[in-house]
Amino acid sequence: MVRKLLLLQLLLVSVTGMLRAQDINQLVANAKAKLSKVNDYEAKGRMKTNVTFLKVPVANVKVYFKAPARMKIKSEKGVSFVPKGAVSINAGGALGGNGYTIIDAGTEKVGNTTVRVAKLLPLEENSDVVLSTVYIDPVTSLILKSRTTTKENGTFELEMTFGRFADFALPDKVVFSFNTKDYKLPKGVTFDFDDGSTVSQANKEKQKKGKAEITFRNYIINKGVSEEVFR
User: Fold this and answer.
1) Is there a contact between 125 and 102 (Cβ–Cβ < 8 Å)?
2) Is there a contact between 45 and 176 (Cβ–Cβ < 8 Å)?
3) What would you report as the CA-atom Rg of the chain, rounded to the nearest whole angstrom?
4) Which of 106, 88, 105 is nearest to 97 (CA)?
């Protein structure tokens, strides 16, 4: 009798694990399907960058996107300070392709929302991405947060707030968080240091976190984006 109960318990644990694995795979598939509604967009927004050792003015920006992962951010005041790996504002970068293993990492809270956590391990050995973690609202299938660790561009996080364009998985607001030491300035681009800073002090500040925040005013979705934009 004891043996039968033990076998039954093991069977239930095994089935529960399989169901949870199926659930997280389906949830990731649902989130991916929602993202796939957008082939391209053009958006206007306001970008605020918070990096201790740099003076980067608040600027109006235009953001252009074309599937699967091409993006361009144009600022009226020059080059926008955004780490290379963090440009997939619609979080499509984390779910691009099918070359990853999905691991169910349980539940967490993002704000007041209980989310399911999925860890994505790339199958390709030469992938720049080491690990992606996505935090998915199981009710809306929206990715509220993602964290990606890369070989070349360090680790960065995206946190998204949705509203008017939630049906297209496009946020009203997105916040990038990144290690400033992992960001390399584009060739030929310089920024003013904060008043009173020295180069030595600036190098110390590079060990801290940086943030870039974009609040979107509107989107033009699936109307086509010219190739000229990305050149």
Assistant:
1) no
2) no
3) 20
4) 88
Highest mean pLDDT among 4-8, 28-32, 65-69 belongs to: 28-32
- Amino acid present at 208: K
For residue 179, what are its two tokens? 């290690």
Q: Is 109 helix (H, G, I), strand (E, B) or coil?
A: strand
Q: What is the pTM of this model?
A: 0.78
**Overall CATH class of domain 2-230:** mainly beta
For residue 64, the tally of other CB atoms under 10 A from its CB is: 18
**Confidence (pLDDT) at 3:** 43
- Domain boundaries defined on the chain: 2-230
Query: What is the rounded CA–CA span in Å between residue 52 and residue 96?
Result: 32
Q: Distance between CA atoms of 159 and 212, rounded to whole angstroms?
A: 11
pLDDT in tens, 127-139: 888 899 999 999 9
Question: Cα–Cα distance between 147 and 162 in angstroms, integer?
Answer: 18
- Where b means 16+ CB within 10 Å and e means fewer, 94-120 reads bbbeeebebebeeeeebeeeebbbbbb
Cβ atoms of residues 48 and 30 within 8 Å = no
Which candidate, 220, 176, 223, 193, places its Cα nearest to that of 55? 193
Angle, CA of 129, 134 and 140, to the nearest 5°? 145
More confident residue, 71 or 120: 120
